[in-house]
Specification:
heterodimer; A: 0% strand; B: 503 residues; mainly alpha; 21 helices
Chain lengths: 117, 503
């Protein structure tokens, strides 16, 4: 289970970073969302993975570490708020600047221009 | 329990409650009521901060367990001398920023005052918190307030700089959580004192994982503090926002510095067994390069606010040097210099706002423009601040730099540090004199605008500027206090001690 879990988290992180390397706010937002999902899963696993063990509720001997769950809960809430802000900012940027490139203008593609000439 | 026992939590609670109250209808409609309330709240915070300073000085480290849940499971706030000093600094800074903004800058958009309050809550919380996860939470509180403050008033330039700033910080926050997860996975705790206890006991394979987590944290704090390869967002962000906000941001880089100090200077400090000082080999060259790059950018700046932003980067580099020296003497010097540089940079940002107002279209760019209506007053303040920022006597910049230079005299890094710090001082001298001459003397024609600075704006700047000579006059007690802070910081705190403090 650990291997599959870590592969999934790693794949998600890689996808998130790949998307964020593109210079447009839309892909940036999608990449950030993926990355924050990966973070949440990672945090969740940081207390160790257990099957069939509840959080401390029942008072039994076998229980899952409750602290990462508390951390993930907080991280999810904060992540949502931040993503919402990022989406609105991206829309405002798109409206004010006329494009969704992070630098406010599309970079000039010199090769393409030479072709036209 | 008297009210005095709860003193530690007030710097977080006051801005929080005032911020919430400001959102209520009758208050949110009236700007003048908001101004009165926030100024009153900030005066109260200054009083609380001074009380906290005195309490820490006389009774030692203070701990406050929220809900009376003891560490390491409960959330604790810990106030040692260093954090109490920084709380006082943020209270003074908050007060001056609100005074300055009350002259009209808060009219440009909605919710300026509540945002400032939430920002101060985040800053104070980050300084006080005793565990790493709450450090993250308070970071987010101060960041989300700063995102909105930065684009307060709107405008293309602000939005564009804000996009970089917001997305970089969001990525930083994700990395922060990755680092925390890594550390929690090996240490099983996120309480600073508990972590410091457990780090020396790690097995070899766990050490490697912990090391990667710790270095990831260094990158995250480096981003917030504008440490070398991660500083590119700062000049644009600080120079495109309004001047009171930029002045408040002068303390934000210090939150990053504070965290590096607390985690890499102390938790992974000398006591950390095999993981001792893992960040130092990285910090040391980065600190020097940050000064060098900052100084070069200072020379290349085309407007006063960009110049001032680059001076912030130089001061960040200087502070990183004092962290990497890893001695009580250097930390004392660093703490003194931190207070000085925050005040001086904030005052310069406020002054840049006034200059920009009075120069019309030329703003604060170094070009020929009409003379300013109040150029004599502004020029005088500019000269004072420039002396402070460069580090010439008699103002506090000189004392701070002298202390730093003095603290390295018996180490073999002396040649590097002396030449870079003094060189950066010389470069700031050149850049600031060039800035002063082009802003105040290269004028053409008479001024036509009757736009004058509001007295309250001058009051705000005067408060900050008067602190610089005061820091020299009371240099003795202040350095004693900084030394107390450095000693407490260097000694660290174990969980046992922490729980004893609580009793």
């Amino acid at each position: 289970m650990e291997v599959v879990y870590s592969l999934c988290v790693g794949f998600m992180t890689a996808c998130g970073i790949f998307l964020m390397l593109r210079g447009h706010t839309f892909t940036l937002v999608i990449g950030l969302t993926l990355l924050s999902y990966a973070v949440n899963l990672f945090l969740f696993a940081s207390g160790g993975l257990t099957i069939g063990a509840p959080a401390v509720l029942n008072g039994g001997d076998n229980y899952a570490d409750p602290l990462p769950q508390a951390l993930v809960l907080t991280a999810i809430v904060i992540g949502f708020a931040m993503t919402a802000f990022a989406v609105i900012l991206a829309m405002r940027g798109r409206a004010d600047l006329g494009n969704d490139h992070v630098d406010g203008e599309e970079p000039i593609d010199r090769l393409a221009r030479e072709d036209k000439a | 329990m008297s009210l005095f026992d709860h003193l530690v939590v007030f710097p977080v609670l006051i801005p929080f409650f005032v911020g919430v109250v400001l959102l209520f209808p009758s208050l949110s409609a009236s700007l003048s009521k908001q101004r009165i309330l926030t100024i009153a709240a900030n005066l109260l915070m200054v009083v609380v901060a001074i009380a906290l300073l005195l309490k820490v000085q006389h009774q030692g480290i203070q701990m406050y367990a929220l809900g009376d849940w003891s560490a390491p499971f409960g959330i604790v706030l810990v106030a040692d001398a260093f954090s109490a000093l920084l709380i006082a600094l943020s209270a003074i800074l908050g007060l001056t920023v609100i005074l300055y903004a009350s002259a009209g800058e808060d009219k440009n958009g909605a919710f300026f005052h509540p945002l400032i309050m939430f920002q101060l809550m985040g800053i104070n919380g980050a300084f006080l918190t005793g565990d790493a996860f709450n450090l993250f939470v308070f970071f987010e509180v101060l960041l989300i307030a700063s995102y909105s403050l930065m684009i307060h008033g709107g405008g293309k330039q602000k939005i564009q700089a804000n996009i970089h700033y917001v997305f970089l910080n969001l990525i930083g926050s994700s990395l922060f959580l990755f680092a925390l997860g890594t550390l929690y996975g090996t240490l099983g705790t996120l309480n600073f004192a508990d972590m410091a206890d457990k780090i020396p006991q790690l097995s070899h394979s766990e050490q490697l994982i912990t090391k990667s987590g710790a270095l990831l944290l260094l990158a995250v704090f480096g981003l917030k503090a504008a440490m070398l390869p991660l500083h590119f967002w700062l000049p644009k962000a600080y120079s495109s926002t309004s001047s009171p906000v930029a002045a408040l941001f002068a303390i934000m880089t210090k939150v990053g510095i504070y965290s590096i100090w607390r985690i890499h200077g102390v938790m992974f400090g000398d006591q950390a067994g095999e993981l001792a000082n893992i960040a130092l080999p990285w910090l040391w060259p980065i600190a020097l390069l940050t000064i060098a790059i900052g100084a070069i950018s200072v020379l290349a700046s085309q407007s006063l606010r960009v110049l001032c932003s680059n001076l912030v980067i130089v001061s960040v580099g200087t502070l990183l040097v004092t962290i990497s020296l890893n001695s009580v003497q250097a930390s004392t010097a660093g703490i003194y210099y931190l207070v000085h540089s925050t005040i001086a940079c904030a005052a310069m940002f406020l002054l840049a706002g006034l200059i920009q107002q009075q120069r019309g279209k030329a703003e604060d760019r170094f070009v020929t423009a009409r003379a300013m209506p109040q150029s004599a007053k502004l020029g005088f303040v500019f000269a004072l601040l420039a002396i402070g920022l460069i580090g010439m006597p008699p103002l506090s910049g000189f004392v701070g730099k002298a202390l730093i230079l003095q603290s390295v005299t018996d180490t073999n890094q002396m040649a590097w540090i002396w030449s870079l710090i003094l060189g950066a001082g010389l470069i700031s001298l050149i850049a600031l004199s060039r800035a002063g001459t082009s802003l105040f003397w290269r004028t053409s024609g008479e001024n036509t605008t009757a736009l004058q600075g509001h007295p309250i704006q001058y009051l705000a700047i005067a408060i900050l500027v008067s602190l610089l000579p005061l820091m020299v006059v009371f240099g003795g007690p202040l350095t004693d206090y900084a030394q107390l802070a450095a000693e407490q910081l260097n000694a660290g705190l174990s969980l046992q001690q922490l729980n004893e403090v609580a009793k």
